[in-house]
Amino acid sequence: MTKNEIANKINYKADLARIIMLNYKNAFKVGDIYDNRGKAESWTGPDGTEDFYPELENSVEYVLYVNDIECHKVDYDNDEECDVLGADGCESEGECLLPAETKLKITAVSSDEDFEEMGFYEVELEKVD
Q1: pLDDT tens digits for 76-120?
Q2: Entry pTM
Q3: Which positions ≥6 away from 114 have C-beta within 8 Å?
Q4: Cα Rg for the chain, rounded, in angstroms?
């Protein structure tokens, strides 16, 4: 079983968030399609906590949001699923997966002034059918 095979077992609908750290700004532009590099991605669902944070420490933080999207909520009681995802002991992350085929369009990006105030850029996305 692969991460994408698990992601395609849709079992949940939620508002999701994902944190990305990059070493450059202006990575996201309204109207563009978000590039998931053709891979299933892990997002934090509404049951997640602050326990998840990217391992890379770069200079520009982006917090991506997508509302009311179908996904796969990780079943932390499923040993095989947790093994494939390396999700043992990660229950507090509230991980949800979006399949590799998911296309998201960027609908809003916060301003440089917002970045100065919040310390990150907010990026709003919506699913494209």
Answers
A1: 889 999 899 988 777 667 889 999 999 999 999 999 999 999 989
A2: 0.88
A3: 121, 122
A4: 15
Where do we find the tokens 């079943």? 75
The token pair at 20 is: 């990305």
3-state secondary structure the chain: CCHHHHHCCCCEEEEEEEEEEECCCCCCCCCCECCCCCCCEEEECCCCCCCCCCCCCCCEEEEEEEEEEEEEECCCCCHHHHHHHCCCCCHHHCEEEECCCCEEEEEEECCHHHHHHHCCEEEEEEEEC
In angstroms, the CA 48 to CA 28 distance is: 24
Q: Residue 56: its pLDDT value, please?
A: 58
The type of residue at 124 is E
